[in-house]
TrEMBL record:
This is tRNA (guanine(10)-N(2))-methyltransferase TRMT11. GO terms for biological process: methylation; tRNA processing. Catalytic subunit of the TRMT11-TRM112 methyltransferase complex, that specifically mediates the S-adenosyl-L-methionine-dependent N(2)-methylation of guanosine nucleotide at position 10 (m2G10) in tRNAs. This is one of the major tRNA (guanine-N(2))-methyltransferases. Belongs to the class I-like SAM-binding methyltransferase superfamily. TRM11 methyltransferase family. It comes from Anolis carolinensis (Green anole). It catalyses: guanosine(10) in tRNA + S-adenosyl-L-methionine = N(2)-methylguanosine(10) in tRNA + S-adenosyl-L-homocysteine + H(+). It comes from the Eukaryota.
């Protein structure tokens, strides 16, 4: 089946080649990036081109949907232009040559057909005629409604770094989370990432070094609210969405000192590690360090001391995933990038993990974060404990503070420029 869907790259339309309609429907049951998918019947750069392409579409492919006992309706959508009702009707009338045999039914048609017109991405430069036209049979809509229904704005328990609902769903999709999976987030925070996995039927749990976050205590992150309420916690979030039975638990624990026995296995590890950009990076200290820090020791019920260096966070995370994922299980996490230094080589690797994808989310002119997806392809063996050779890949992150300084230099320069521009 040739199909296309609405998505946002250089054009909001994308032509795909998929093996079957069922696969197209399966895709749309999961995606929060695409609006709709259609079976493409015709495509052209002008109306004439579209019509001749439609006339060439095999009749036997159209016939099952055009029979006399089936009702239909045609809808018109223009991207980057508003069409009047009159213009829409005119376009529908011009498609009269299609061999429809059934009756029109606007309320509950058996089949819906769409004429889609693309007027480009620039709202300040809308061409008179569309640059691309498509006609097709509607198959399914995507899950974009989830972005609204799971919005952080309406969520019971949130923190300063709660993951945006759309990104959390994208991460769960990259993690290929499916019903009855066990999904783990070693830096769980308010559990924002796990909600999406629970929505897809997984059992979720995590750890966080911060006692207050895990227990839903302390200062509230919402404006006009000083302290967190008695029922502001991860469990209450899952309850809010009817997903409480998918919540296993969250433990107060330091990700640099995993608490799992050898043999504990997860289907996916989905996480947003602390990079010291919006939150402090820290880990429990050594006994020596702890002795030095006695008065801070009780503050969080565990002694938190040394900075957890970025290179160590990444090193530990990959090693942990290599050891505790099932074969075929996925690690999905965000990697902060200082753009001028980015090359694919700086993405940390591990012999047990294959890099599946690295997708950029631009944050400023100098900084981005990459959504990294890796899949476990090899059993973790004793020699994998010793992955020193690969440490070279962690070099850009080795000097934690200098990375942060660079990262912030971009952000501060941008803010300074914005402030300057606004004063002009
Ligand atoms: C970016 S936030 C995660 C936010 C989370 N995705 C959410 O939606 O709320 C990173 C979390 O890592 C925690 N953290 C920092 N150092 C840690 C460590 N060594 N072990 C475990 N958690 C740690 C922080 O307390 C913070 O909650």
């Amino acid at each position: 089946t040739a199909v296309f869907l609405l998505s946002f790259f250089q054009s909001p339309f994308w032509i795909l080649s998929l093996p079957s309609e069922d696969i197209a429907k399966g895709l749309m049951k999961r995606t929060v990036c695409a609006k709709s998918i259609f079976e493409l019947w015709g495509h052209g750069k002008s109306t004439d081109e579209l019509y001749s392409s439609l006339k060439n579409y095999p009749l036997e492919n159209m016939a099952p949907y055009l029979q006399s006992n089936l009702t239909y309706k045609i809808k018109v959508h223009a991207f980057n232009k508003t069409l009047t009702q009159e213009e829409k009707i005119q376009r529908i009338d011009s498609l009269e040559f299609l061999p429809f045999e059934g009756k029109v039914n606007l309320k509950k048609p058996d089949n819906i057909f769409w004429l889609l017109e693309d007027y480009g991405m620039d709202p300040n430069n809308i061409p008179e005629h569309p640059i691309d036209l498509y006609f097709g049979r509607w198959i399914a809509n995507g899950q974009r409604d989830l972005i609204e229904s799971y919005s952080v704005k309406k969520r019971h328990f949130i923190g300063n770094t709660s993951m945006d609902a759309c990104l959390a769903f994208i991460m769960a999709n990259h993690g290929r989370v499916k019903p009855n999976d066990v999904v783990f987030d070693p830096f769980i925070g308010t559990g924002g990432l796990l909600i999406a996995s629970a929505h897809f039927g997984a059992y979720v749990f995590g750890t966080d070094i911060d006692y207050s976050t895990v227990h839903g205590l302390g200062k509230a992150s919402r404006k006009n609210q000083k302290w967190r309420g008695p029922d502001e916690n991860i469990r209450a979030n899952l309850r809010q969405y009817g997903l409480e039975k998918h919540y296993l638990d969250a433990f107060v624990s330091d990700a640099s000192r995993p608490i799992w026995r050898k043999g504990a296995q997860f289907d996916a590890i989905i996480t947003d590690p602390p990079y010291g950009i919006r939150e402090a990076t820290r880990r429990t200290g050594s006994q020596k360090e702890m002795a030095k820090m006695t008065e801070r020791g009780t503050e969080n019920h565990i002694s938190i001391s040394s900075n957890y260096h970025l290179s160590d966070i990444l090193f530990d995370l990959l090693k942990f995933a290599a050891e505790h994922l099932v074969i075929g299980g996925r690690l999905v996490y965000w990697l902060p990038i200082y753009k001028p230094e980015y090359t694919e080589e700086i993405i940390p690797r591990h012999p047990c993990l294959k890099l599946i994808s690295n997708c950029e989310q631009t944050l400023s002119s100098h900084t981005s974060r990459y959504l990294i997806t890796m899949e476990k392809v090899k059993e973790f063996e004793d020699e994998d404990h010793d992955v020193h050779i690969l440490e070279s890949q962690y070099l850009p992150y080795k000097s934690h503070n200098s990375f942060r300084d660079k990262y912030f230099s971009g952000v501060t320069k941008r803010i300074a420029k914005e402030e300057k521009d606004s004063q002009k």
